[in-house]
User: Fold Small-conductance mechanosensitive channel from Roseateles asaccharophilus.
Amino acid sequence: MRKLIQSLHDWLPVWAADWLDILVPAVEVALIAFAAWLLMRLAHKLIGRVTQKYGLPVNVVSVFLRVVGVLVYVGALLWALERLGVSGAVLWTAFTGFATVGAVAFFAAWSVLSNLFCTLLIYITKAFRIGDVVELLEAGDKAGMKGRVVDINPVYTTLLESGDAQNGTTLQLPNSLFFQRAVRRWHGNAVVELSVDQQGGP
Assistant:
């Protein structure tokens, strides 16, 4: 492709060759921008299908799409700068600086990111849903934390421990905790008995 453009550049008159030097990079940048836009459209459709299949919450999907968008558009920007003639050394410096900042931010937000990933796993694996009664089992003979799931957000799962939403107690547990311990789901009569115990509790 480069040889074809160079031969065309040599064949054209000087005034047209100057315009070619401007037009070719502009077209390349436009194609890169279109490719990034198309890739994000495909990502939206793919994530939309996954959301419909597994019932992912909107806030989790929004965060995931923002992360994908940053990666796609930053990559497209660096590629476009390279096509516009920015030196490889400058691009490499910018990339390594961006990667360093990203790595520091990644490790600083590791707990939040791990909870976000575990939220996706909870929905994909159907570990439990809102309305289920679950218990996190402790080691040994200790009683576990249990309650009815009333909310699952990107960081926490909220369990109704006793009473109701107006007069009761709730537990907010990090989503990653459900993949570090055994989880017991209560079914049928066991759920009814648990509800009676909660209403009769303090």
Strands lie at 133-136, 145-152, 156-163, 168-174, 183-186.
